[in-house]
Structure formats: C-alpha cells, structure tokens
Specification:
mainly alpha
C-alpha cells in the first residue's frame, strides 16, 4: 500500500478504513527492512499508541487476523501483545503459543488472570521456562497440569516430574501423557504403573523393562488394602492433609503477593472457583491480617467483620453482597446473621480510609478470638 493510501486511511473516520489501516501498518512494520528499526524505544512507544488506539475499536475478526500477523513478530509492542493474549481464546491462542514478546512474568500473569483455556495454552507453549512451570504446579489446576504433562519441551526438573506423577494418582488424564514423557524415569515409571490401566502398564513395562511380576504383586496388595480397609495414606489424620493444602495455598499467595500480582479481584475469583481457603489466605495477605482471625471471621455470625476486611483491601460496597453469598454457600451458611447481618455489614463500607477499616477489623477480630 502506498504512503498516499495510508494517509487517506489515517484521515478517514470510517471503522472499515481504520481496520484496513491497522492491518496495513502491521504489514509495513513486518517488512524485513523495518523490523530492526521498530525495536527502538521511541518507535515502540509510538507504535504502541497507534496500535492500541486502533485495536480498541477493531472488530473481532480483525483482532483475530492481527493476532496471527503479530504472533511471531519480535517488534510488536509489549502492551499490545499482552492485550491480545487476554482476548478471546481464539484470538489469544497464536499469541500465547508463539509470541517472543511474552516473557515469563507475562505468562505467569495469564495463569493468574485469564481463563482455564488461556492457562492451558500457556502450559502448551514450546520451551516453557522453569518459572512458569513452577507457577502451573503451584496452582495445580488438573486441565493445565495435563497440558503441561503433554508438553515435552517444558523445562521440568526431576522433582517436578515426580510432582506430576504423584498428581496422576488422583488425576487420571495425566497418566497417558506422563507414560509417554521423555523425562519419565524407571523409578517414576514403577510408581505410575500402580495406578494406570492395562494398556499403559504394558507400554511402561516394555519401555522400561520393568519386572511386572513384582509390580503386579504390589498392585494386588494395594487393591486388597483398598477393599478391606483404608491405606496408610488414607488413614493419615485429616488435619495433616488439610495442613499440606494450606501450605500450598500460602505458597501460592506469597508468590503472587511478592510479584505484585495479588489484587482484590483475585478474592472473587477464588470464591467463584470454590476455594474458600485460598480466599481467606489471599484476604489476609492483602490486608496484612492474621489468617486465623480471617478464618474465625468466616466461621462467626458477624458478617460485618468480613465487610470491614473487604473494605480495607479495596473491595467495593456493590460487590460485597456477592462475596457474602458465595462465602456462605461454601461455608455452611457462615458467617451467619441472615438478612439482618447482611444489612449490618453494609454499614462497614462507611466513607472511611482503608487504614481505619483495617484497624477496626483487627480490633474486632481480636475480640472475637478471645470470646
């Protein structure tokens, strides 16, 4: 397209012309003569401003075409790539899977903020780095773990492979990709053998030359224990298993908080996903509260204390009724107080500073703990 044609499109206010301009600029920047020049800070700032102003108004099919054009572009502005990576999954997929502009911090942010479909694409990204792999294992989302197990180019350490094999005890979808994984060792293959189906057992035995006689005896003993009683692992105190889960949740929250990625919106996401423990841990981290006091508040009959804590971390008054409703559904109707308690809770969102709300929560929660 000639410079005169580009100028005509730039002058036009018609949506179709602006979309043609968007794609034309992408083609122009992608030329072999311009790609190196496009990486300068001044040019990057200008391109980011131009692309972002045009993309905001672009139709879905234009954004889809643009994502394919920019998927492999090294010159593409970081802000634009991150916006496209958060778009509908069909638009985001080529960006997440290919873009060299996306760094580990961007991919971890997608794991926190985006949908499960986006997270799965992150797990499938070629040559996935250790930081992102660790974040996937921390979140332990079954579908994302399965995608990671099928990604043979991801940087998985021996201990991380062991974590995946252990997870396959509960997540059946992990077993097939793990049985074919190039980093599976003899030791892990023997463990995996005990809870896969007949076809996969045969494949593992052939690949690693396993002594199936010994393994089948162990398998039979394990099945016998399951039929006549609980196994040693199942007999472990419930509190120990809960403690492991709480530690994992605390590590995840600490990681997000340390990276500056823990925000009030994460609280709502945790509740929507049915993770009340994660909600409590995140709320405590955001407000610098004691986790035990947050948990005591959730189990009390005083929803106004939960409202104070939410107000202290920046939750809007209009959002709190949904938070209270989801919390009660996940926690056997607690915090109690019924409709009257919910009404009293709304008073906690008086026009005071976050610091005052936090101080009021700490004082009230301390008294609740001593009651």
């Amino acid at each position: 397209m000639s410079s005169e044609s580009l100028l005509d499109l730039a002058k036009s206010r018609q949506p179709a012309d602006r979309e043609r301009l968007l794609l034309a600029i992408a083609d122009l920047c992608d030329s072999p003569y311009a790609s190196e020049a496009m990486k300068g800070p001044a040019i990057q700032a200008l391109l980011s401003s131009i692309f972002m102003s045009l993309v905001v108004e672009a139709e879905r099919d234009i954004r889809h075409r643009l994502s394919h054009k920019l998927a492999a572009a090294e010159w593409a502005p970081n802000a634009l790539i991150n916006v496209l990576a958060l778009d509908d999954i069909e638009i985001a997929r080529p960006i997440i899977s290919q873009s060299p502009v996306l760094q580990d911090v961007d991919l971890v942010r997608l794991l926190v903020e985006a949908t499960i479909e986006h997270q799965i694409e992150v797990a499938r990204r070629p040559s996935l780095g250790r930081t992102v792999v660790a974040a996937i294992l921390e979140q332990a989302e079954p579908a994302v773990l399965t995608a990671l197990a099928g990604n043979h180019t991801a940087e998985l350490s021996p201990s991380e492979m062991e974590d995946l094999v252990e997870a396959s005890r509960q997540i059946a979808a992990l077993r097939t990709p793990l049985s074919q994984h190039p980093r599976l060792t003899d030791h892990l293959a023997r463990r995996l053998y005990l809870w896969v189906g007949l076809a996969l057992r045969q494949g593992l035995a052939d690949r690693f030359r396993l002594d199936v006689t010994v393994l089948d005896e162990a398998l039979a003993a394990s099945m016998s224990e399951a039929q006549h009683g609980v196994t040693a692992a199942e007999a472990a105190p419930r509190t120990a298993r809960e403690g492991e889960r709480e530690m994992m949740e605390q590590r995840l929250i600490d990681k997000l908080h340390g990276a500056g990625q823990l925000r009030p919106a994460y609280l709502i996401r945790a509740l929507r996903e049915g993770k009340l423990g994660l909600f409590a841990t995140a709320l405590a981290a955001l407000g610098r509260f004691d986790v035990s006091q947050v948990q005591a508040t959730l189990d009390s009959d005083r929803p106004e204390l939960l409202a104070l804590a939410c107000s202290a971390v920046g939750i809007d008054r209009s959002v709190f009724p949904d938070i209270l409703d989801m919390t009660r559904k996940l926690n056997d109707g607690r915090p109690g107080g019924g409709a009257e308690g919910a009404r009293k809770a709304s008073v906690a969102f008086a026009p005071v500073s976050a610091e005052v709300a936090a101080a009021a929560f700490r004082q009230a929660a301390r008294a609740l703990s001593y009651a």
